[in-house]
Amino acid sequence: MLLVLLDHDRGVLDPTSLQALTAALALDADVDVLLVGAAGHHVVPELAAYGAGTVHVAVADSLTDYAPVAAARAVLDLVDRLSPTAVLATGTPRGNEVLAHVAAFLDLPMAADCVSVTPGVGGHDVVRNRWGGNLLETARVHADLLLATFAPHAVRAEQADGTTTVVEFAVPLSEADTAVRVLDRVGEGAVGVGLAEARVIVSGGRGVGGPEGFGVLEDLAELLDGAIGCSRVVTSNGWRPHNEQVGQTGTKVAPDLYIACGISGATQHIAGCRTSKTIIAINTDKDAPIMGYAHYAVIGDLHTILPALVAATRAAKE
Amino acid sequence: MNIAVCAKRVPLSGGRWVLTPDGTEIDTSGAAMGFTVSPHEECAAEAAVQLVEQFGGSSTVISLGTSEAEEQVRGLLAVGVDRGVIVETDGREWDPQATAAALADQVRIGTPDGAYDLVILGTEAADTAGYQVGIRMAHALGWPVLTNVKGLSITDGVARCERAVGSHREVYEVTLPAVITVKDGINIPRYPSVPGRIKARKKPVDVVPGERPEPLLEKVRLELAAEDQRSAEILGTGVEAVPALVEIFKNIGVI
């Protein structure tokens, strides 16, 4: 039996949770789901449509919002009672965090960001992302109980039949278990306006030359109903806000069209845009690494090409 | 306030990775290869330097790696970290459990200025991306921990932390001593100044031997991700390629 910890925020399911459920059901027909917090009840109908069997909802009076150690306590409680062969979680910040606490409590290895998991007896095989997905590592997990998180977007969520049963249980918590918890929510988040959802991203790198150089990228993005992205050197220089950074340490995107302007294609950046459906590179250097990742390339200076492209695109739309 | 920063030497490549013939390591012998620390860890060091500027005390970078990691340790000393400790390895990777145990041992030893109040790491290392060393260290030390932190301020021994989730920021409070793991974007790391580099040469770096346990998360082999075998179709040079670009926009339905 597999136990899968799914991620929701105050009753709104993280979309990667359905992917994790699909991935777990592909490994074993016998999958129990854990949701932490009473608000988890809200997402049960959605999980039912994707084949969830038994859904455990952990509740406690002190569990009013996300608290990583408390969530780990809920996992440990079910591990004790259900003796699963694996505890899997979706590889969101919360999923990775909670499972790492579980691993630390049990002093067991944990494999994060796995694209493939093969539970075994006495040991398990996984394939996991390194370098933001630029490299894949095949690894062996030496433990009876496998602890692993699934890489987001490694599988597509699929609806499935089944009968869903909800089991609410009270998880015993000490004051220390909820000492670190969400106290408030403020301001603007990680992701620039629509960057993760944009169909088109016009992205700029060092070659743009400075903050004022992004004007023409903004014009093109507006014409294509797209969003602005950038590389790390751009945010490190303060030319654009960090929530526009595409890359291993920024946002990972997968638009229909990614236009990389003056971006050399360092591995850090490629990790964030590699799964874009079509990548166009505009670069003065025909040997830049980006040429190995782009589908199409134009060799030349973006400062002359982009204004002409904006004019031609505008004309084509009329 | 005494702060430990954990950082590690990782390969730096402007281009694509090349693997060793046995497929277990990145080939770092090429002329274009360099080394660096992970972006998250650069930000961890910057956060430590800023906090010591604000509150006094000292900062120490602790690195698990070969003696060559001194290059990265001195690099962080050049931006204001006060001293370094290298837990020396034979070059083979350590798994996250062993890494966390060795780093926590160094934190327990403390500094010449007294015990540590705070340990700052990157949320995940650029290369191995295990998402767990900071949490395991906190458990070993019996300290609270928070990961994915993109905003950090400290008042009266309590760290107010923010982390970005979707369209908003979550606020947490963590009582020191604590472990905090940060993400790129929490600050803009400063560049080393020339005086900074000169001072860094004289700052103390201790090297202590590390004893590698057998890994429980054991790397078997590496491979390049599938898409990396592509070669771009060149549409043209300069503005002559613009009509071809517009044609692609039409074909994929974005105009």
Spatial ordering of strands, largest sheet of chain A: 9-8-7-10-6-1-4-5-11
Seen as an oligomer or otherwise, the chain set is: heterodimer
User: What structural class results from the helix and strand content of chain B?
Assistant: alpha/beta
In total, how many beta strands of chain A?
17
Structural class of chain A: alpha/beta
Low-confidence stretches of chain B: none
Mean model confidence by pLDDT of chain B: 95
End-to-end CA span of chain A: 59 Å
Mind describing the biggest β-sheet of chain A? Answer: 9 strands, mixed
Portion in helices of chain A = 25-40%
Low-confidence stretches of chain A: none
Helix content of chain B: 25-40%
Strand neighbour order, sheet with most strands of chain B: 7-11-6-1-4-5-12
* Count of separate DSSP helical elements of chain A: 8
Rg for CA atoms of chain A: 22 Å
Strand content of chain A: 25-35%
Distance between the termini of chain B: 57 Å
Q: Please state the overall shape of chain B, judged from the principal axes of the Cα atoms.
A: globular
SSE run of chain A? EEEHEHEHEHEEEEEEEHEHEHEEH
Note the main sheet of chain B. 7 strands, parallel
Q: What does the secondary structure layout of this molecule look like, with pairings?
A:
The complex is a heterodimer of chains A (318) and B (255).
Chain A: E1 2-5, E2 8-9, E3 12-13, H1 15-27, E4 31-36, H2 44-49, E5 54-59, H3 68-82, E6 86-90, H4 93-106, E7 111-118, E8 124-130, E9 135-141, E10 146-150, E11 165-170, E12 184-186, E13 200-204, H5 214-223, E14 227-230, H6 232-236, E15 257-261, H7 267-273, E16 278-283, E17 296-299, H8 302-317
Parallel strand pairs in A: 1-4, 1-6, 4-5, 5-11, 6-10, 7-10, 13-14, 13-15, 15-16, 16-17
Antiparallel strand pairs in A: 2-3, 7-8, 8-9
Chain B: E1 2-6, E2 9-12, E3 34-37, H1 39-55, E4 58-65, H2 70-78, E5 83-88, H3 96-109, E6 118-122, H4 133-141, E7 145-149, E8 151-155, E9 158-165, E10 168-175, E11 178-182, H5 194-202, E12 205-209, E13 217-224, E14 233-237, H6 242-251
Helix pairs in contact in B: 2-5, 3-4
